């Protein structure tokens, strides 16, 4: 027999009404008079069994229903949880889809950017190749120009060196000739003085100075004092800076130099031989002064001059601060 929920509910209703009317005892139909009592007893037992069976089934179905309702409640709870989890999963899936869409968009943009970079790279490579080609051509041109200019400079240097050597040789010849002329002029003046009977007071004496500040550098330079204060008998030549003895005898010479924050190094020279020297060391003072003086015997025609002996560059003050003087003392 197939029992539906409808049968279960009807049975529950009948049982509930019976229990309610008999204080929990199933009502048994009353015995009708006139029936066989034995048969009636069997019927009652059978009915009672059926009722008990039905009650057992009702209890079973009641428990089953309660379990079903409980399971249904649990199932609803599980379904609610599953729905919540499904909603969460749906949200997560949507977020993942959005993220995936953004990633796809980013990848697409990156692909576009990469394509642009490749295009720019190709353009840069073309520009670089063109630039390298221009630089190579320009370098070759510059190398050719440098080679040509170097050759021209070498030729010019050789020509200039030859010209300078020619000028130096000519200048040396002129200097030698001028010295000889100056020496001869001095000797002539001395001879004229002797014939005229020149007194000792009229004999050779000179005082010369630098007309302006002058820079000296390099060893062995003849110092030409170009400002003449006096030059008796013209024995000193302001053009060469050399004094030529007009006669034999004893002479005296002295010199003074002043410089600023530089070494002073010079000497009085007789016929290429130093006879007196001076030195003033730079000691961070604003004023450096050096002086020297000497007596020397000269033969007629001997030459005396001031020569710079320093190795560095020195700016010497002109005027009264730097001067050279000499005069005849006595004859042999």
From TrEMBL:
<feature type="domain" description="C1q">
    <location>
        <begin position="199"/>
        <end position="332"/>
    </location>
</feature>
<keyword id="KW-0175">Coiled coil</keyword>
<feature type="coiled-coil region">
    <location>
        <begin position="65"/>
        <end position="152"/>
    </location>
</feature>
<dbReference type="InterPro" id="IPR008983">
    <property type="entry name" value="Tumour_necrosis_fac-like_dom"/>
</dbReference>
<dbReference type="GO" id="GO:0031012">
    <property type="term" value="C:extracellular matrix"/>
</dbReference>
<keyword id="KW-0732">Signal</keyword>
<dbReference type="InterPro" id="IPR001073">
    <property type="entry name" value="C1q_dom"/>
</dbReference>
<dbReference type="Pfam" id="PF00386">
    <property type="entry name" value="C1q"/>
</dbReference>
<dbReference type="InterPro" id="IPR050392">
    <property type="entry name" value="Collagen/C1q_domain"/>
</dbReference>
<keyword id="KW-0964">Secreted</keyword>
<feature type="signal peptide">
    <location>
        <begin position="1"/>
        <end position="20"/>
    </location>
</feature>
<protein>
    <recommendedName>
        <fullName>C1q domain-containing protein</fullName>
    </recommendedName>
</protein>
<dbReference type="GO" id="GO:0005576">
    <property type="term" value="C:extracellular region"/>
</dbReference>
